[in-house]
Amino acid sequence: MTKLNFPIILHVMGILLVFNGVFMSASVLTSWYYSESAILSQLLSSFIVVVTSGILLMFFTRKHDKDIGTKEGYLIVTLGWIIMALSGSLPYIFTGSIPSFTNAFFETISGYTTTGATIVEDIEILPKGVLIWRSLTHWIGGMGIIVLTIAILPMFGIGGMQLFTAEAPGINTDKLKPKITDVAKRLWLIYFSFTALETLLLNLAGMSLFDAVNHGLSTLSTGGFSTKNASIAYWNDNYWIQYIIILFMFMSGTNFVLFYLAFKLKFKRLMANEEFRWYILFVSIITLITFIAVYFQGDLTLSSTQHPMLLGRIEATFRHALFQVVAVITTTGFVTSDFTAWLPFISIFFFGLFFLGGSAGSTAGGVKIVRQVFLIKNGILEFKRILHPNAVLPMRYNGKSVDQKIVYNVLGFFILYMLSFIVGTLVMSLLGLDFMTSVGAAASSLGNVGPAFGDVSPVDNYNGLPYLAKWWSSFLMLLGRLELFTVLILFTSYFWKKY
What we know:
By secondary structure, this protein is an all-alpha fold. 63% of the residues lie in helices and 1% in strands. Strands 1-2 form a two-stranded antiparallel sheet. The protein is globular and about 70 Å long. It starts with 5 loop residues before the first helix and ends in an 11-residue tail after the last helix. 48% of the residues are buried. Belongs to the TrkH potassium transport family.
């Protein structure tokens, strides 16, 4: 194999910086609209620095081989996310909203990886220009800046298939024809349309337009950043807002390819999808268990305010149970109540949900439903194989036999995921965190969930973590968002060997 094509890697980094700057301009416009003169120039400076850096990088690498190989693809994706996080930290640092570089990087990588873990103690005092940028980092990372880029790369004469493969391994590109750029454009159109629709509905339900925009950006990306310190609990007296967010969190945890098929009126394909049916089943059963457990804990206070028109404790319990189950499964991380204070059983139960995840091809993090289904089916088949050692018993999914290589890949991923969690927890404990905080922070960061347990529970944040723990958590967020292999393969010796 020939040596790595570094000019094309740097050229794509330049393109990503320009895109980041274009999105950053929204924070400048927001600050101007709300007359935030104290920070307008700083936001404008960050915009100029990022865009100028991108343009210069593109200019000096304009003469490059335009082919992106497999290795270049993996490097571009991992380095791209790091570059986006580094440049995305500038609005926080320049405005003084988060003056510490470590904290600014943590907040930014948490945004792009749609983790939603925050170090901000008082969110409501942040300028609106900074808040909109904070939510936009979620939205950009939700579908993946790399997927956006491959829709544009052909304009520069650069192919994007290797980028798409590295960035979105869960999306089945066979169902979207004919070109990979068309895939990206269609997915982003669906993504944008759902964001706009949720924003409209939230505004009609009683949110201010600014809050509605921010929560639309955070929900569709399954991110979890809110404009309120209490997160969605701020609207505990408005059940319409919470049900709207529940609906769009659930949709965001669904494979976006299925929405494309639904828009083409192929509803049978939607309901025939096995992962989607398991997704509905998991949410339904887990919500029912949570509802029963919470409802029969008679002294439990679900919220600080209760709207007089609510249907009573049954409706409120069901809503909070459903909201938190969907928020955790889809790794959105919004909260309407501190679920760690409900019951010890619920805390342990929800900790298990940290390892579930949404659907493949969604904006959710975690292990993903399809992998869980494969693990369950393979486990059942092993019992049959023990009883019938000579029988040929292939695994079937969506009515088709699954190649054994895919099963091995899923098993390998799960083992690597659990090892990453164990190592992540051990490092957290070595850095001085107690058991619950170490376990919670590691599982939440790797699964891109957000709120966890211990000192990083829904009523706390990550600001109290030591600096090294914040950097380790940032690494785990990136590792989980890019589904392990994309990042870890860079640490192998054979990746860098020349053949």
